[in-house]
């Protein structure tokens, strides 16, 4: 603790809690500090909140080192120096209020609102802000409006010249950059996806596997940007993770260094639930939020005035901001329930979502994600600007993305969301949410048939699950046809699920030989859903007729609102139709194209959802029909495209067998010398299921490497158990430990913190196994708790038996391919550049030798006891440890 001119002194946990409870203290990341003190309600003067107020839309790594970089100070050399450093950093931040800093506009007005909301920093900040001579503009008047533009002409038919592609690549890499033959060959192969299409529904499909270090991002940006310029069309670059989306945005600065030009030429697109909803924000600012949520709303409003795109998830809103408020209210600031009223919104012309959609129609490059690409194609969104060329980076995830997109789930949560969309607020619920009848009141007053359809839809929605449905089902008192169906699902799942019902995990069982109770409940549920979908289809037709007739009252905004309603109705009607098809399976014949099952979803024994599920055995079938066949060309690329198998596996995983023309193949091995840069150790004496032994192994390995470790788990419960056992031990050794599902910090920020400190370590699950790019000393050790076998779910069992889509062979061969791919992805986190050096440790004596080919050829693999593994880690990484300590000494 540091206080005034008094010497710094250490506090016990109890003293720290008492001090923080009695006196406002300056701290860094209150939720994280509170969690580590065991005092969840810890609050005070959080430096991160002050930074978010003073510098909205700027990012700062939420660590002392990050604060130092943001304020231009020298980072603290030891833990004892952090407290006085935070005092100095606070003074440095507050000093900007004496200047005309770039984000001054709006600060005085925001401070007045935050004072009324009792923000802890308000008494400190507000007196330092001088009142402007003129009233500051309200946020909603400051935001720029988008404007309509004429439809973009169809792309011209062009053929890329190989020489021009090579020249563009040279421009992107820089004239003085090292010539990489693999990258040049990759760019030439990628250009094949931009050749003119020769037949309808036969796209030019190129599959390109580029090992780590090839430089595939610039390799495909070269032909993609060249084609966009020459053809006058947009190329959609799709990723699986938000981390790669953000990375691609940074890479395009090489293509367009000028920020204004880049903003016009390159647009990042995500699902609408990622963007700030201005109408929700206005509701929050005008009393819809209270307490800490109200403070968050005002800080988000500060950010909204300076953001580039309004993206709250992975954009320029610092990922740590919402976690400071324990995500209290952040979800309500986005459109997560599909309740947008489009042109009926007073902020429609300034809407971030609409602006992004229009900007992407004129852009050369649109950086999207697999889910959005599939949603737009499947739901017929933005047909006038439908892309003809795609680049699917992280292409090995296309199968998984399609699996999620084209599945069907008739569950309590899904049905209650549909009910809320139709009916609007019920009971004592608050907020601006409006039902279908209120959103289309003008149409109802104009069109009698439309009004009747709306009335029928609202009446039929009464059969869907309603608030309190979980409690009613648990008590044996379901209400309505759908709740009775869900109760029957729950009863059969508990009766047949092979999992231990007392273990607290989710339960599932095949939809086969249904019980009499389930069959009896299915018929009324189907009748209720049929009564719902019929008027939904009828209303859609009436809305289309209203558009065609164009009555006098229909101006541009009204037309846009009705078009939005048609689109929303269409995909919701398709959803209900999918539910009906699933119900027809109960007591009926099975369809070998699908896998159907019943599930009760639970977290630590607490039920939160239940229902029926359907997935395609091969989800690339609908992906090919909706996305690939309408396209003219697509590049599917990854460092592990054939991971776990060969080219036939890669082709099956992206749906190539369902196209009339075989794809082009290209492969470029990594240029790294894995044989000397890396080593794989398989630890033979850590018993499976021995959590204390597992925790001891993680602690000793991290101590031996002096941090820089990425620990990967296949179960959240084991991750938490290991973290609880080793965090204090490592902290005392000066080795910070961070963890997904433990720390109240978003995953992206956790990775930033990990990257920023070579002595920190990070524990995580699948999200960190793929897509994390941490080159250098910050990641020099990867530890996996065991062989990443696939979970024995109903869906996995069905695909294992059929072995459709992902190749052939079935059984253990199918499982082995999945494990090889996961091991390859995890190993890929270790070596990211030519001077990286590290070890990959697998804590499993049961690792089969047949799976060792998952690692790059030439990598030394040794089976050793834990003690020897510790010695090898210490020896191999001794130079890294010394460098890290020298760097820390220099900083001090």
TrEMBL record:
SMART domains referenced in this protein's UniProt entry, alphabetically: HELICc2
Keywords, in A-Z order: ATP-binding, Helicase, Hydrolase, Nucleotide-binding
One biological process term in Gene Ontology: nucleobase-containing compound metabolic process
Cross-referenced SUPFAM superfamilies: P-loop containing nucleoside triphosphate hydrolases
Listed transmembrane segments: none
Single annotated GO MF: nucleic acid binding
Domain Helicase ATP-binding per the UniProt entry, residue ranges: 169-450
Origin: domain of life: Bacteria
Assigned protein family: Belongs to the helicase family. DinG subfamily.
Protein name in the entry: Helicase
Protein's organism: Sphingomonas ginsenosidimutans
């Amino acid at each position: 603790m540091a206080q005034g001119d008094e010497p710094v002194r250490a506090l016990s946990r109890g003293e720290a809690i008492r001090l923080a409870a009695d006196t406002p203290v300056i701290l860094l990341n209150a939720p994280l500090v509170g969690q580590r003190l065991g005092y969840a309600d810890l609050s005070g003067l959080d430096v991160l909140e002050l930074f978010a107020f003073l510098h909205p839309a700027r990012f700062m790594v939420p660590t002392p080192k990050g604060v130092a970089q943001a304020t231009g100070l020298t980072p603290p050399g030891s833990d004892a120096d952090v407290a006085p450093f935070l005092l100095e950093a606070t003074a440095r931040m507050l000093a900007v209020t004496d200047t005309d800093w770039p984000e001054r506009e709006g600060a005085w007005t925001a401070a007045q609102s935050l004072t009324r909301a009792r923000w802890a920093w308000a008494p400190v900040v507000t007196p330092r802000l001088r009142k402007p001579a003129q009233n500051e503009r309200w946020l909603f008047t400051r935001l720029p409006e988008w404007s309509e533009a004429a439809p973009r002409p169809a792309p011209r038919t062009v053929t890329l010249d190989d020489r021009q592609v090579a020249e563009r690549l040279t421009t992107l890499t820089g004239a003085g950059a090292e010539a990489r033959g693999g990258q040049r060959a990759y760019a030439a192969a990628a250009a094949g996806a931009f050749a003119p299409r020769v037949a309808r529904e036969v796209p030019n499909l190129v599959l390109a596997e580029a090992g780590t270090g090839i430089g595939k991002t610039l390799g495909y940006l070269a032909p993609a940007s060249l084609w966009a310029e020459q053809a006058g069309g947009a190329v959609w670059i799709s990723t699986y993770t938000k981390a790669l989306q953000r990375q691609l945005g940074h890479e395009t600065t090489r293509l367009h260094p000028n920020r204004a030009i880049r903003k016009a030429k390159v647009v990042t697109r995500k699902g609408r639930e990622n963007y700030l909803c201005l109408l929700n924000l206005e509701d929050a600012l005008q009393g819809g939020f209270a307490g800490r949520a109200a403070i968050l709303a005002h800080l988000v409003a500060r950010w909204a005035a300076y953001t580039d795109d309004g993206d709250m998830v992975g954009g320029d809103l610092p990922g740590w901001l919402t976690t400071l408020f324990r995500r209290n209210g952040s979800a309500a600031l986005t459109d997560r329930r599909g309740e947008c009223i489009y042109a009926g919104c007073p902020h429609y012309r300034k809407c971030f979502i609409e602006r992004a959609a229009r900007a992407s129609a004129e852009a050369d490059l649109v950086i999207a994600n697999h889910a959005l690409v599939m949603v737009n194609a499947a739901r017929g969104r933005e047909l006038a600007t439908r892309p003809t060329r795609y680049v699917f980076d992280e292409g090995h995830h296309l199968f998984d993305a399609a699996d999620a997109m084209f599945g069907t789930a008739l569950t309590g949560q899904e049905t209650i969301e549909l009910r809320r969309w139709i009916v609007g607020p019920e009971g004592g619920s608050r907020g601006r949410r409006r039902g279908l009848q209120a959103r289309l009141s003008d149409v109802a007053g104009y069109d009698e048939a439309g009004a009747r359809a709306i009335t029928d839809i609202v009446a039929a929605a009464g059969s869907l699950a309603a608030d309190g449905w979980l409690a009613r089902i648990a008590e044996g008192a379901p209400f309505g046809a759908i709740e009775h169906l869900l109760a029957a699902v729950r009863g059969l799942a508990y009766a047949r699920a092979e999992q231990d019902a007392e273990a607290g995990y989710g339960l599932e069982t095949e939809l086969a030989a249904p019980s009499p109770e389930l069959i009896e409940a299915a018929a009324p549920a189907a009748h209720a859903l049929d009564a719902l979908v019929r008027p939904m289809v009828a209303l859609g037709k009436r809305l289309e007729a209203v558009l065609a007739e164009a009555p006098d009252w229909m101006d541009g905004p009204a037309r846009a609102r009705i078009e939005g309603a048609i689109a929303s109705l269409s995909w919701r009607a398709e959803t209900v139709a999918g539910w009906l098809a699933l119900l027809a399976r109960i007591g009926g014949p099975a369809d070998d194209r699908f896998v159907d099952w019943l599930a009760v979803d639970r977290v630590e024994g607490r039920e939160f959802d239940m229902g029926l599920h359907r997935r395609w055995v091969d989800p690339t079938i609908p992906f090919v029909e909706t996305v690939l066949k309408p396209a003219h060309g697509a590049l599917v690329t990854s460092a592990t495209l054939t991971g776990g198998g060969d080219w036939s596996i890669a082709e099956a995983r992206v749906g190539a067998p369902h196209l009339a023309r075989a794809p082009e193949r290209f492969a470029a091995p990594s240029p790294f010398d894995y044989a000397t840069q890396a080593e794989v150790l398989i630890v033979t004496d850590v018993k499976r299921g021995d959590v204390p032994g597992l925790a001891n192994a993680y602690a000793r390995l991290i101590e031996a490497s002096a941090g820089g470790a990425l620990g990967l788990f296949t179960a959240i419960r084991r991750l938490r158990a290991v973290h609880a056992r080793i965090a204090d031990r490592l902290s005392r050794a000066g080795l910070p430990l961070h963890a997904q599902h433990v720390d109240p910090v978003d995953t992206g920020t956790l990775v930033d913190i990990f990257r920023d400190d070579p002595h920190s370590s990070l524990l995580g699950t699948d999200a960190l196994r793929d897509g994390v790019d941490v080159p250098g000393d910050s990641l020099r050790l990867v530890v996996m708790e065991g062989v990443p076998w696939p979970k024995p779910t109903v869906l996995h069992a069905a695909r294992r038996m059929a072995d459709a889509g992902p190749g052939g062979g079935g059984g253990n061969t199918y499982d082995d391919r999945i494990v090889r791919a996961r091991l390859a992805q995890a190993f890929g986190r270790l070596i990211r550049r030519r001077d990286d050096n590290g070890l990959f440790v697998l804590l499993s004596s049961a690792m089969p030798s047949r799976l060792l080919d998952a690692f790059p050829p030439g990598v030394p693999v040794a089976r050793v006891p834990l003690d020897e593994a510790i010695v090898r880690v210490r020896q191999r990484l001794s130079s890294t440890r010394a460098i890290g300590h020298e760097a820390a000494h220099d900083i001090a």
